[in-house]
Every structure is written in C-alpha cells, then in structure tokens.
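Record 1 of the preview.
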Amino acid sequence: MLAALLVCLGGCARVPAATEPPPSALPHAFPALEARLPATWSGLPALRASYDGESAVGDEDLYGRAFSVLAGELVGTDASATVSPDYGGLEVAEAWLGAGHPYDVVVRAYRLPGAPVDRWTAVLDALVAGRASLEWRYRFGPDQARPTLLGTATTPGGDAALVVASGDTLYELTGRDAALLSTVAAALP
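->
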C-alpha cells in the first residue's frame, strides 16, 4: 500500500495513506491514462490519480523501479543532454486500494505520447540488468503475448513486481501477493 500519495495542487504535498483524500481531490491530469487502470480488484474500488513526469520526480515511492530508468533516459546521463522540464511529456497514472484494505497492490502506468512502441525494450533491459536499484531483481516472464518482467524485492518479506509493456504504455504492478498481481495484470489493455 502506498505510504503516501503525491498530490499537486499549486505545489506538491505528500498525504499519508491513512488520511487519503476523496477521489475528487486527487490529481487527474491524464484521465485517458487513468482509464487504462483497473477501477476495482477483488471486488474493491480502486483510487486512481495521474500527474506529469515533473510531479513524479518528487514522489519517493517511484524510485528504485521503472521510474528510475525512465527518468535517467528522459533526462540523459551526459552533460550535454538537455533536461525537459516535464520529463519529455511523461504521463504517470496509478491505481491502488485505499487505506485499511488487506491488498497492497499498486498499479502504475507510464506513457510517452509520440514515442516509438519499442522504447520500452530499453527500459525492460535496464531493469533486468539491475540499473534501477540493488533492492529489486527482475527477469523476463513467460508471457509471450507482450514483454513482461517478474520482479522481487531483495529485502526479506519484500514485495513482488510485474512490469508489462503494452503498446505505448508501460505498466508496473507491485504488492505482496504475486497471484493477485498476475490477475490484475491479465486484465490490463
């Protein structure tokens, strides 16, 4: 479950999960991307929000996984790279169950409008190579229909993760229940 939620209303502020705001108070910068995420799972309604890449930079929950690789690619690693103030137009959406629910699944969608679909190949390869974090290990999964990574946290009792590339969107699912992650991932477009 998210320890906190990034809410940008004239500035970014972190909101503890135990005091989550109502859905209408969450940022909804990209409703079409949010619509790709599950509205419910296990019969429970999900909270959904979306924001741009610049706002995502301040969200510590995103680092160490796919966003770390995306941020590095969008900003560039050499001194001559120009930094886009909105991280190249990156759109981020996420869905989760509110505080107090027994499921701690978080589903994130990353989209780069206009980017080639094969852009995700480099991100997936970087995750498998361990360039995002020493706290996560990824390997390619058995899904032949679309590129999928299976991830596990290296910390004892850590989370599981799935990263799924589908068209112009990269989905990242994290949580403690790998079977639930697979069920949620199967329903993604």
